[in-house]
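Hi V.,

You were right to ask for the full record rather than a summary. Here it is.
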Amino acid sequence: MWIVKPEYIDQTREQPVLQIIHLDSVVRAAHLMPVFMQDPVPLEVEPHNSLYAYASFYINKYINHHAFETIF
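Predicted structure:
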């Protein structure tokens, strides 16, 4: 699995690098799994805010055979 992380304009992690892409360039959604650290997961982390709670994510290419064929 690959590890991905957001890119930011500055070191404070306040302004992410954003780009508008054309819908024709989207092939499939990605299944992201957080890279957990040694600490327990805080109770306030829920699916809707998990992208902001973790610094990096695994891309799960094994979620189904379509994703495996596309990414691999």
